[in-house]
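Page 47, continued from p. 46.
Same chain as before, 183 aa.
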Amino acid sequence: MRTNLGRRGVLAGACALMASVAAPAVVCAQGLPGVRRAVLYNLHTGDSFNEVFYANGQYMPDALAEAMRVLRDWRNGEEHPMDPRLFDALHEISARLDTGKAFQVISGYRSPSTNAMLHARSSGVAEHSQHMLGKACDVRVEGVSLRDLRNAALDVGAGGVGFYPVSNFVHVDVARVRQWTGV
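Result:
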């Protein structure tokens, strides 16, 4: 029996094949409408995440769970639900930067005890940090200037953006839109 797929069928099959093969994050993220991918590397644990977390109009629970594990509090291993909009923001930032390189995670979720310890050491750590709510991460991207990373995050407009040139990271959160510069 012979099937005539036509041009649309061939294109749909090609897209499905592209999605199933290991491809650069940018190709998958930007080449397939409605597909969102995050690429993360936790500098403290060595854990990484490079998966589609949103497709076919919905978040992928297993992928989000794995991404949340990568963003856990590395000081005590505590995990916390992360706001999926944070991954949406990172996806959009990556698309604006036109890079498939991983976000190097300096800090994701922070437990209340970790945040209290860091706040006691530095006035630059908010007492009621968005990190404790699962709405923030501090990142950088190899080969991308912090200024370009900050500008891409500001362009996305998903929430707060902190620029820390001395500490070498950009804070991204999905709380209210605001910006600041730290050390």
